[in-house]
Design brief:
The protein has 463 residues and is of the alpha+beta class. It has 13 helices and 14 strands. Helix 3 crosses helix 4 and helix 12 runs antiparallel to helix 13. The longest helix has 19 residues.
């Protein structure tokens, strides 16, 4: 047993080393089922005698009440030797004063009845015997399980607890049915040479003794504060609209989780003013069946049996109106007219964007190509005109005839083409003249059909 609050290991007696609270820091870390004494800083009035019964804790949260007959000055965390049958036991005081009376009433124990007594504060000899007995528990548990398997007994030995004077060992086990362990006790007595006591516990009591971490990430309720184990039914999961998945609803004990009962009363109160899940609405298109209920938003989903994949979201008030119409013998035209439109649906995207974890990240900037920023004298020169690559899709113009003798033949081909396409013939002479002019005088044709002088790359700008 270790104290997770002060992060120190424990000594042989189970009390954390270096813990100023002596093993009871009130944070459910030093011991199980701890109680905070909120009356510890209050002074009793003169002539008032404090309650003479104290609460003592033993291994794995087992607690009992003992009377301080000799009026010993006991405080929380003191190791005491208590009365047992036979011999004596060793435990740690967890609560004193008037709060013990409240705890006894809570556990249905008479505060003024007969209780066992405290012998003394534990001496060093008592603590040494107790610590040596605690060291024998783990290897003994392994051997005890092997013997139970050899005898083919359907039982599980979950824990072993030695008495403080090492005169008796209590074996805690779980089983589904009644087990005949008479032969098992003989084998244990022969193997361990000690007084044996068998005690059967339930699966929830076993989980409470062993402890652990639940699916919620916290320590088990049964091992920290819960002592009243109430029955849990699958109806509690149905009322809370939970999926009946046994792997998610079951705890470490294999039974349904005790936390299913925590909010059950609130759900039952909310379901009183809502229609049943088996509600059916008669419409002209057919019968609409309820598929789901949202208790918090007071909304129900309906669907037609012919198209069960298409659900319609309707408010509870609208559903009640349709049910009243059916009771009066009227049929609803269709449930599409009563579909609930969420006003905040448009703002959901903005809310999701605001809650995004990456909303504060700076966007990655694209790397720009590096440019030569050195200023030279050539910056004053005119920019060089880049020669455009010839377009492969553009038709190449025919080369002019080298000799004048071939011009009549070229003229004939032009006339033949013009006869085939008269629209193209009108623009052909102008295009040919512009091309010859640009080639001879180093002019290039403009987009508008005009001519523009071609600038020499070596010439400078004239101001």
């Amino acid at each position: 047993m270790a104290c997770t609050n002060c992060s120190t290991k424990t000594n042989d007696s189970g009390i954390p080393k270096g813990c100023g609270s002596k093993g009871s820091c009130g944070t459910d870390s030093c011991n199980k089922l701890s109680v905070f004494d909120w009356l510890s800083n209050m002074h009793y009035p003169s002539g008032f005698e404090p309650f003479d019964v104290v609460e003592v804790r033993f291994k794995n949260g087992r607690k009992d009440f003992y009377k301080n007959v000799d009026k010993l000055p006991l405080h929380i965390g003191d190791v005491v030797a208590t009365e047992s049958s036979p011999g004596h036991d060793v435990g740690v005081v967890t609560l004193t004063g008037e709060l013990v009376k409240v705890q006894m009433k809570k556990k249905h124990v008479d505060p003024y009845g007969e209780t066992l007594k405290i012998y003394r504060k534990a001496s060093q000899k008592d603590i040494d015997i107790w610590s040596e007995a605690r060291k024998r528990e783990e290897p003994m548990k392994v051997r005890a399980r092997e013997i139970a398997i050899e005898l083919k007994l359907e039982m599980k030995i979950s824990d072993i607890e030695f008495q403080g004077d090492a005169s008796k060992a209590t074996f805690y086990y779980t089983a589904n049915d009644r087990v005949d362990f008479r032969q098992l006790i003989k084998e244990f007595a022969r193997e361990f040479s000690i007084r044996i006591e068998m005690k059967q516990v339930g699966f929830r009591q076993e989980a409470a003794r062993l402890g652990g971490i639940g699916s919620c990430g916290r320590e088990l309720c049964c091992s920290t504060w819960l002592t009243d184990f109430r029955s849990v039914n699958t109806a509690a999961a149905r009322y809370q609209q939970l999926s009946l998945n046994p792997q998610k609803l079951a705890g470490q004990c294999g039974k349904l989780k005790c936390c299913l009962n925590y909010e059950l009363d609130t759900y039952l109160d909310a379901l009183k003013d809502m229609p049943d899940t088996e509600t059916k609405i008669q419409t002209k298109k057919g019968e609409a069946v309820c598929q789901k209920i949202d208790i918090f938003k007071e909304v129900m989903w309906f669907a037609y049996p012919s198209n069960m994949a298409n659900w319609f979201k309707i408010e509870v008030d609208q559903v009640k109106e349709m049910i009243e119409m059916n009771k009066q013998g009227e049929l609803v035209d269709n449930i599409e007219d009563f579909v609930y439109e969420d006003e905040n649906a448009s703002t959901k995207s903005n809310v999701i964007a605001e809650d995004s974890l990456s909303r504060f990240d700076q966007p990655k900037r694209k790397k720009r190509p590096q440019r030569n920023k050195k200023k030279t004298a050539e910056t004053t020169t005119a920019p060089v005109t880049e020669k455009k690559a010839p377009n492969e899709n553009r038709q190449r113009r025919p080369k002019p005839a080298a000799n004048t003798q071939q011009q009549p033949n070229a003229q004939k081909s032009v006339n033949q083409n013009s006869s085939q396409n008269p629209n193209q013939n009108a623009s052909a002479p102008a295009t040919a003249n512009n091309a010859n002019q640009a080639r001879n005088k180093k002019y290039r044709p403009n987009k508008n059909g005009g001519s523009k002088p071609k600038r020499n790359t070596n010439d400078k700008k004239t101001e």
